[in-house]
Amino acid sequence: MTAITTLTLCQVDYANPQHMQALLDLLDGYARDPMGGAEPLSDFAKANLPQALAARPHLFSVLAFDPAAGGLPVGLVNCVEGFSTFACQPLVNVHDVVVVASHRGRGVAEQMLVLVEQLARARGACKLTLEVLEGNTPAQKLYRRLGFENYQLDPAMGQAQFMQKWL
Questions:
Q1: Contact at 8 Å (CB) between 81 and 64?
Q2: What percent of the chain has pLDDT above 90?
Q3: Which of 60, 95, 113, 126 is deepest in the core (most CB within 10 A)?
């Protein structure tokens, strides 16, 4: 497939109903995909996510629309600003990267991540972080091409592992 050069990218306005509908639709599609856990978003998440996102200034999202497909929303990246105590600067965690199946492999994620990097730099962030599943080799290739590396402090101590505990 050829790369799409005519995407319309924007930072999501959480108060904009069109942006929020696109965000919810894309996020629900991602949640239903095996890479997102294969379960739809809960009714609670769908009902409360717009207000929850708008209430948190340390969150931001990017949308991609394809004008050639009637302005269809085709990509989403959700980001969370954190803080690096070692650098004493903000960092940005790329939390969700979503591209609809019809547009995968066409440069959508790359274009969105370029905008994410610009927005992170404008926030004074020292780095971007993200998690990726071991089986998602296309995403890993993209992230490496964009300069991401596995996290480690001392190679003798190995690479960091992403862990979770549900509360």
A1: no
A2: 83
A3: 113
